[in-house]
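Running log. JK asked me to keep both predictions on one page so they can be read side by side. First protein, sequence followed by its tokens:
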Amino acid sequence: MAQTLKTRLLSFLRDLKYSPRTRKQWPFEATVAKNWHLGFTSFGGPAVHFTIFHESLPGAIGMYGLSIGISKVNEILPRPVYALLSGLNSATVGVIALAAVQLAQKAITDKITRVLVFLGATAGMLYNALWYFPLLMFLAGLVTVTWDFRWLHRLTRIGRKKSNGDEELEMNDVEQRRQNPPGDARGSQTTSPSSGPNARVVRQTDSSGKGYQRSELPITANETLTQTPEVDLHDATEERVIPADRDLNISWQFGASLIVAFLATFAAVMILRGVLINRPLLFSLFANLYLAGTIIFGGGPVVIPLLREYVVNEGWVSPRDFLLGLAMIQAFPGPNFNFAVYLGSLAALSGSKPSFAGALLAYLAIFSPGLILVHGTMGLWVKLRTYRWVKSGLRGINAAAVGLVYTAVYRLWQIGYVHEDFAAGASLGRDPWWVVVTATSYTGCCWFGVPIPVAILLGGGMGLVWYGVVSG
């Protein structure tokens, strides 16, 4: 009996023994383990990586140290420093412009997404507010759903009498489809997925063997029922194979709980933000950045211009210090959201509060919404991906978000020139040299494979060259 108990105890202890190959990791732990190195290797932020707490720590610590140093410098900096910072900003604009082009190439799948990228960029340039950007993306998602489901096409058909020629042509097309099914010797057509979801490109072959392509709108629910299984049903039911070491195993119940809990905290913070008359400085800082982190889409380049309104206009950070931090963050590893750490520290110091408290609150406020919503959505995506309207709406949202990156390029261009005579910053177009620096960083990264940190540092060096020529 004793021997049996001893054997079972040893077996139980062996099962509990730590083994990195067999132990199941928690979702957050798995995310950290697979992506920790990005915090040390990813610079500049846009279109380079996604961020979690562990990854952003190196850059966040650096930005906190920078805020302490900036708070102790004189109001007027040496002129070579202004030239250096203007060069860094110019190179940064070029890098973000390249990121916008690369993102657009992926987001544009058809004519409607191309139009939405353009409209998102132009609408963002014309008006600037925190609530405005989410509204643009919601409308863009609604547009793609309307387009993909052909709701407007159906409305235009009602009350419109077709001409005899169009009707005859359409009837001939339908008759040809019926008489010449796939594989028929007289003519055949094959379908292949286009770059857009639920769209297809039909290649038709006539009796002579000559083929031509004809693009069609995304398949509607009624059309799906008439399609051959080999064409569409296989694509709709095909399961994605996720490697075991990449599966975070987040259930939809856990994801839904995360989203509900976040919405409750967000509502509480926003109600207090609107009700309290004499809000403490640190709470106001947290509330503003929590709001920005929740409703801003498109990443760091989009949120940075709006942080100027919600931090600088509040009187917590001077325009000069904002521009200095904007120039320096591009040379730090990690995401652009680490800029909030810098601003939070300076905001706390302006109200005689501990700088570390302001930096920590700003860090949590800007990162928490995205982290919670992403992990919550990962759990729900298994269920949501089965709905065609969800994928259709995401096409429009993604296109509008890419357009907002172009808006960020314009906003940063307008304030990138740092000089003692322009406390709030000026347009980089004031001197052709900064246009050259921007173009150099863009072409260097795009055509010659120059790493982003090297391109940004090269921009700073070109700024010093400009100072040497002008001052000499």
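And the second, directly underneath as requested:
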Amino acid sequence: MVLEATMIIVDNSESSRNGDYHSSRFDAQVDAVRLIFHAKTQSNPESSVGLMSMGGHGPEVLVTLTTDFGKVLDGLHRTKISGKTHLSTSIQVAGLALKHRQNKTQRQRIIIFACSPIEEDEKSLVKLAKKMKKNNVSIDFVVFGEFEGDNTKKLEAFNENVKGGDGSHMAIVPPGPHLLSDVLVTTPILGGSDRIGGAANSGGANLDNGNDVMGSGFDFGIDPAQDPELALALKMSLEEDKKARRERAEKEKEESDAKAKLTGITEEEQPLIKDNAESKNNGNEDDHDKMDTA
């Protein structure tokens, strides 16, 4: 599985107090952070996750990259809801935290929860997106709560310009009967179906009240809303099985090619081997005749 260093940025602005997501926008993020952490660390034990907040008076690094969920949970409990969001500054700080990761073989990823108005203009966001792409940083957005004005348009423009080889996704989650963490399981952000909302082509998943997600977007015979951790485990198991089958097929192909090379002796070479054997036998008969003459 992919080896990644992931910085999660939570939105702890005043807008996160709203209760249109169970039980509030901030509490919905807490559940989602828990799910993302376990998904990243279980897919690869050497992957690490850090935590930031972007509300209050400015962005704050709550937890540096770690594999200890207890530290992340403590950081969430210490987070206070206040102020407004500082999106651009938060992304740059997260980028610096990833740049100084200990394991340089880890791919860099930032996952941002946005549930409040974005004050930055589209032009400055596009410029920042291109800079992050140049630094090989993938950025995922979980957009919920605020869909008025140019909020979604600005983030879509950012997403279009930050896309790289490792993929940057945007999931738009309207209020609905399902938990935010349940919906995230089925998005490309956590390796869900690329068919959701055209995510494979546009990089964004527009989830209509979770109905599409729980219907056609999940093919394991269970409802991920009932047990998101089981749903994630099933996805990971399927991916590992596909990888094992692919490796087995490649090995069988290599063995088949090697066998074909060994049996590919031309007909011209075979008489030559036979002639050498006959010559050797004739030489032995001549030696025998000489011994009788003596």
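Observation for JK regarding the second prediction: Strands lie at 4-10, 48-53, 60-66, 107-114, 137-143, 170-172, 204-206.
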